[in-house]
């Protein structure tokens, strides 16, 4: 907005450095997906064999699909619940230590305790386990993370616009969708990205709350189970494809968006 | 002028405290249908708080609020057929001007074309048409205020609560908006409750006005009443300019201060005489009963205010004279003056 | 906002219900094992005992806790120091490109924790890319031992949790009124003091949230210390994990877990208080 | 599916399901676990529900049995038990294969780069008190029992030692050893040898073979003080509703041809005489430890469940990990 | 009055555009040392933008700004010895009133006791003492505005830029604050540039004033100059109330409209005569040259404005008379009026 106060240059340098840090190991990871040998840690020549292997490895592909399903559902549910919880907590008159502790708990409970607890609980209930139980379980910690991010944003939120909306005849619900939500959107998006990322990568809770069958194996479960005999670069190939496809999809949708807005 | 006598809004013994701070204190007030009611009072006296209770954003600690005879306490803000224009605007930052204005109408589920028409019309009357597609952050202070006003106006509610609606506007625009508000009062039949710091605005526009202080209602009445017959010293001083002369009422019914005597009906005892600057007549030294000297002259555009030191009071008396007649006087001049007994008030 | 006093409760209800039904109840069930004895074959022998809590009091565990807290805290500080400028730069980028930048900040983490960590091993080990690069640049000394050190663990933790901090801080920075910073500059504060006295306190809730993420995820992490630290460093999460799985001592695991959860919650509540105070959050009753 | 089987990934033929279906008409579903510990935790928390057959190492099989989660093996339904070496039917944790059937077995020893290590290491002390040239170039297995075993063997104690004074000695030794260690590693130690990052590592024999496959200079040795005997077993769960099919599956695995697959492809010895004898000689030339005789192997001491002494182990391991 | 003649601030050909919107357009202006300078103009004319450029928050697209002869463009805001009071207050929400006020002094590294003393003093003069420990969100609109003002005042900079500093205050408080500003101008020697929508404020307080429109400077001068001798029709209409009568100047030098003739020096041709309401004299029908009828009477507190329909112009003329003399007139009355040629202006 103004050259006296904020030059764009330092920001660009910071972004360059930070993104460099974030993508340095990713470059290695991608490189290793073209590694002829199967060792995860040393280079022995270029090959695309792992991509071929990946395409015929239905176990990995199915696990990737399951992970995506789990992450999407867990993200959607936890984003909704977490945002509402954040709103509820920040608009309360009195801070309640019990509520605060409840919202912190999922973050500090060791994964294994939660995993064992859930499995014990689900089996006592006689619940059939599967992807749905993984989703239910992931929502527990995802929602705490979402809530935490959204609450941070709400600390200095100007609630008068919410009042204005009610005053203009909008119900609480409409106000949420048309005013609170769009204004909170950056933090809700941040929370959702966080939840998605946590779910995609979560292993121990998913392992414990998955059903016994193949149909509820997630990618981290699949990958960790490969440790004993060595993780092959198939997984790197998969990661490369996942990141490549996501990035391309985003860029295309952005480009379409801009095309639409121009005329 | 437009006020009929049935109250549309009845405020009964309403009070509100924020912790130790009492913002509104036992206010009882009737607002009549279709009247233009102005709320005045010093900064922090509880005006905004009162409006916020009417709109439903604060729940009173005491008392109740009746709209057309029905207690509206249980109604959430969106169910109350009144609208509030926020002192701090509270514009939706993510919406354009047009979207801000359309919002309230969309809530009424009006047809698109109807919304468009009414928004266009309101933007035109508030001079906002050219900013229709801007976001609030791209507007100047006065433009933002007009958006806030327009957003409330476009709803045409039964009762419109305006919290300092024109404060950021220049005189011309303010006058234009005042006319617009008056037009809506007459044509659409809206009841207005308006908070303003601009006394002239209140005096010119309001059918009735109320003066609040420290959360309490001091006086309610037509502007002329309040101006001419202020209920107490505070109101007298708050509305318009008032000279106060401390003195005594004698058994003869005459108010007397050093070098000054005025016929006044009051009980014997110490008293304060209040007289407005325009109600003091001046003349050459010796012509009129009280003599004094000019210590300052203030230029107010269409007239001058002479500050005249007399023996009657410690602070110089302010005397307002037309600018055209002011050329004659300069600081240091001696003069004489006279107070019209019919046009002053006595506070005891 | 008092126009509907029950609203906050209603909003919080689904989340609270979820947590109570699916976290509190099951966890209490498991944590109650702490009061019983370990069975001969593992599992739980339902004989009441306080021995597990007595074991928790062993200074050994305090030492491990403090040590891993130190590592986690270092990672947290480093992550915040890197994430803040990044989040700031993103929040100042054109509005259209902000979501894209955020997306690219988390994209690396849609791969897998294990292979990302392996990638770090490839970079850092004695025969790894960085050492090879140094060698090809003419460096002749002993290869740098960067792996299996505390710094490697911290690097790994910072790396993996950095985006979370960026997201949390960004969310508070994104709509911060720029006039507040201008007012500070106007009153004579340079960029640094403006940052310390205005920007930072106002975004402190985000920094705190992000910091909490790194800290709790780090202290509960065991893959990074195992792979990048060569298993020479232990985080608290590992301790509990080991009791449940390796040692098959659920009662002791439950006792350790309960102690850990309690300590962390108390710490977090204190931290939340401090943050609220420093960022001048509105007081509960006054705001209504 | 008729059967749900949990195993480590890649520990059976990838087409096992098709083969089994072709042979028996029964459908199986194979799921994977990453470690013994995880699947044990899961089985114990759920009472074994959902699984029919699991592959776990012997101490864990013992626990499953102790917990009453293991189904007795129906000998009549598993005629291929006869294929096992006699040594494999009298193992101390389960003499007579009453609740478990051994799948693979082997030893733990030293895996090293003969081109980087002077001479042939032959003692656990070569690992625990390395010569200067090897300092910072050794790794040890990270899991409690194997970590402790290295120290216990070096001291000449039992790998199931319970005497607190002796355990204290082991602790001291291992804490000293930690100072010369590059890392604790039980997943990637062989690739550290391949890259040259490490020269001498504490390893399971089969896993050392992966390194040997990449670099001929890599060798495996069991130190003179001995090794533990590890056995991965197959257990049928009591909660299973498909016990007949489960027994059929075990019988299928013990078929010489099928069991040989494991030896050939994952380079672990199998306790199946018929299968081992069918192997190509070239295999044991390339991977000498494949040729180790069962009689020699069973001299090594089995890891047994420690019962309540486990507390002392976990405390000692915690102390070692916390030491610096 | 207090103005010496050396310019402390020189604005040279300064311009600023936001994308397609030109906010400030080639403004050249000298501000003299220790003067009280008012900036007036309609909403959105660029006043805030101009102040923001002076304070260093926007960089001009064109021109330069010299403070005491030195170009301050390269200086960041904190290095400029001037302070801005923001139109939207920009109070630090996480600080109490006292902390908001202390902030700027802490930046000067003053001693604690000194800071405390000056803050206490400033809070006292702005009536904020009792709110010292409140956070901004616990304040009323006018209280917030005073904190913003106090925060700028307490710094006592060379030049103080005030963007609509008193708009949310009631008349009494505003007058008190005006006196305070004047006192600081005189005692502390601060140069003030103040944006205000309150014309009376500008007329009373300013040594000189400037009128901006659409980013351009229309007139700069002492208040009397601008009021009495507006540079153009816009200024004439913007400042105060003005009646415009369209007509023609004849070869005889007389301005003529339907039923009205006024002596005026101007070139022959069509012209507009501008006359202020207070410069029209009225009398009974027939007494004075122009005849008309009252169509409306507005009450303005101390006087009345009669709207008088004449043949001379389409819109009724506004005539201001003292309230005391207004009782005689009512709507519908016929009257006659006269325009003093010496007190009107001709725009051609
Ligand atoms: N960020 C922006 N983007 C686009 N236009 C802007 C922006 N900021 C200001 N403007 C426009 O620039 C013009 C001048 O704005 P400025 O705020 O200086 O007006 P102002 O004279 O202070 O008005 P007011 O009296 O209403 O506060 C206005 O038309 C405004 O809409
Ligand atoms: N949240 C709050 N906490 C504490 N006190 C408050 C709060 N909100 C308002 N007040 C106090 O209540 C009193 C009334 O405030 P209110 O906003 O109604 O005043 P106002 O009449 O609108 O003033 P102004 O003309 O300055 O806007 C003030 O003294 C104010 O400081
Ligand atoms: N400390 C418990 C945290 C629970 C969330 N686990 C997510 C793991 C992601 N790798
Ligand atoms: Mg107010
Ligand atoms: Mg402005």
UniProtKB/TrEMBL annotation, chain A:
- Entries under InterPro entries matching the protein: Bact_Polyamine_Transport, MetI-like, MetI-like_sf
Indicate where this protein resides in the cell.
Answer: Cell membrane
Residues in domain ABC transmembrane type-1? Answer: 64-253
Superkingdom of the source species: Bacteria
The UniProt entry's GO biological process terms, in alphabetical order, are: transmembrane transport
Topology of the protein relative to the lipid bilayer = Multi-pass membrane protein
Q: Which UniProt keywords apply?
A: Cell membrane, Membrane, Transmembrane, Transmembrane helix, Transport
Annotated transmembrane regions: 12-34, 68-89, 101-122, 134-154, 175-197, 235-256
* Gene3D superfamilies assigned to the protein according to its UniProt record, in alphabetical order: MetI-like (1.10.3720.10)
Q: Which GO terms describe its cellular component?
A: plasma membrane
> What family classification does the UniProt entry report for this protein?
Belongs to the binding-protein-dependent transport system permease family. CysTW subfamily.
Protein's name according to its UniProt entry: Spermidine/putrescine transport system permease protein
Instruction: Please report the organism this UniProt entry assigns to the protein.
Output: Shinella granuli
UniProtKB/TrEMBL annotation, chains B, E:
The GO terms this record gives for MF are: ABC-type polyamine transporter activity; ATP binding; ATP hydrolysis activity
Q: Does the keyword Translocase apply?
A: yes
| One Pfam assignment | TOBE_2
Which Gene Ontology cellular component terms are annotated?
ATP-binding cassette (ABC) transporter complex
The ABC transporter domain, residue ranges:
9-239
Q: Which GO terms describe its biological process?
A: putrescine transport
PROSITE patterns (UniProt xref): ABC_TRANSPORTER_1 (PS00211), ABC_TRANSPORTER_2 (PS50893)
Keyword line: ATP-binding, Cell membrane, Membrane, Nucleotide-binding, Translocase, Transport
Q: Does the keyword Transmembrane apply?
A: no
This protein's superkingdom? Bacteria
Task: Enumerate the SMART domains for this protein.
Answer: AAA
Q: Give the enzyme's EC designation.
A: 7.6.2.11
The catalysed reaction is: ATP + H2O + polyamine-[polyamine-binding protein]Side 1 = ADP + phosphate + polyamineSide 2 + [polyamine-binding protein]Side 1
Instruction: Enumerate the InterPro entries for this protein.
Output: AAA+_ATPase (IPR003593), ABC_SmlMolc_Importer (IPR050093), ABC_transporter-like_ATP-bd (IPR003439), ABC_transporter-like_CS (IPR017871), Mo/tungstate-bd_C_term_dom (IPR008995), P-loop_NTPase (IPR027417), PotA-like (IPR005893), Transp-assoc_OB_typ2 (IPR013611)
Q: How does it assemble?
A: The complex is composed of two ATP-binding proteins (PotA), two transmembrane proteins (PotB and PotC) and a solute-binding protein (PotD).
Which family is it part of? Belongs to the ABC transporter superfamily. Spermidine/putrescine importer (TC 3.A.1.11.1) family.
Q: What does this protein do?
A: Part of the ABC transporter complex PotABCD involved in spermidine/putrescine import. Responsible for energy coupling to the transport system.
Q: Indicate what this protein is called per its UniProt record.
A: Spermidine/putrescine import ATP-binding protein PotA
Q: Which gene encodes it?
A: potA
Automatic annotation (TrEMBL), chain C:
- Cite the PANTHER family for this sequence: INNER MEMBRANE ABC TRANSPORTER PERMEASE PROTEIN YDCU-RELATED, INNER MEMBRANE ABC TRANSPORTER PERMEASE PROTEIN YDCU-RELATED-RELATED
Q: What is the protein's given name? A: Spermidine/putrescine transport system permease protein
The GO biological-process annotations, alphabetized, read as: transmembrane transport
For this UniProt entry, which segments traverse the membrane? 12-36, 69-88, 100-123, 152-173, 194-219, 250-270
Protein's cellular compartments: Cell membrane
Pfam families (UniProt xref): BPD_transp_1 (PF00528)
Q: Which GO terms describe its cellular component?
A: plasma membrane
Keyword presence, Membrane:
yes
Against CDD domains, the record matches this protein to: TM_PBP2 (cd06261)
The record describes its membrane topology as: Multi-pass membrane protein
InterPro entries named among the record's database cross-references:
MetI-like, MetI-like_sf
